[in-house]
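Example record for the data management plan.
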Amino acid sequence: MPDAAQHPAQPELPSPYQPGKRRGRTRRTHTVAKVLLATLLTLGMVSGLSVAFLYRHLNGNLNVVDVSGQLTDRPEKVHIDAPKQPINILVMGSDSRDCSGCKIDGESGGGSDTTILFHLSADRQSAYGVSIPRDSLVDRPDCKTKNGDTIGGASDVMWNAAYSLGGPACTIQQFEQTTGIQIDNYIVVDFGSFQQMVDAVDGVEVCVPEDIDSSEYGITIPAGTRTLDGKEALAYVRVRHGVGDGSDIGRIKRQQAFIGALVAKVLSSGTLTRFDRLVRFLNAATKSLTTDIPNIKDMALVGLQFKHIGLKRIRFITVPFVYSTAQPGRVEWTSDADTLWSRIKYDKPLGKLRDGSIGANQVPSSGTTSGSATSSSSGTESSSGTSSPSDSSSPSDTSSPSGSESSTTESPSDSSSPSDGSSDGVDASSDDLAFAGLCT
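Corresponding structural encoding:
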């Protein structure tokens, strides 16, 4: 495979946060969905521990639902001239709020505020989590119910309406029709499992630059570096008022940084060498999943594809958008979104589109902010950091379980590695982190 350095220089692209033109979509990302990445990584690394009982138990946790019969007019899968093919997994966060503490944000449930495309490059050197804001304005296509009935489409409607009307199948139909990218697999995760996953690893350390006081929802977290349990962590990633600029966009950045900390905690020796902690995490991670991945073995094979990607190469970005003037409070994708989807479809470098992205290596830490030494009912002070795996980037020799080449077309451009080289200079800036209410 040609080296990434042989690629022509990527065109300079404007910042995804720009005023003006419209094109229609949003972004917001519940951390619950991003936790999938930690799940896949862990399953891949520990698949050798699959004792028959544990395997049967975890397998029984999965709710396997094949929705392929409900999908129509699917885009062709582009064939990449490489030993492996890219993997595209669509992750949706279920907003069912029937678990303890899940109504912390005061919002109603029953839909999906989170849609994230996880893209793993063909050379297994990089991975992207692309967040789609729930308030994105899109033209929703017709979709099918499991009984074959048609749910009519609509124009200029919110992205998350598709899930409310037709569940995962309608969201996948909408994604494929608006991006031109065929999905290999999907996963739905809920709030309750997120809380349990955080608790399973004995909490996750975060750094809060200033006191969070959103007493309206019972959320109070003093400034400083501290370890949050599951319920506290859910409050931390859900709260808007009293944190950063108070917007959904700031909340997305905070969620992306938190998932980086959770991934690092899961992959640390403190988790992988503690069998009890590991089993608790895997049990929590699988018990509330709905997916078309048929069993734990195949899920572990997907996870193995990530094992040689360093944390710096796992990037979280958001679809480029502008705030809508036609529908205040909504967002619309810009023309840069077309560039983003095209590069992902053909497994090309994202170039400047990575600028300002959150890396899984950007674990919340005290940085230059001095933490409070006081204890909190909503957070335990912590001085110990979490070790993280090396940022090795040697390719994996494991074949992809999702490398189907049915209905494929050749890429119009030469095959090349999608790896973008060093992540230096593309990490979220201090201003971006402060905007989200994170330590800088």
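Summary line stored alongside the record: The chain has one domain: 22-204+257-361+411-436.
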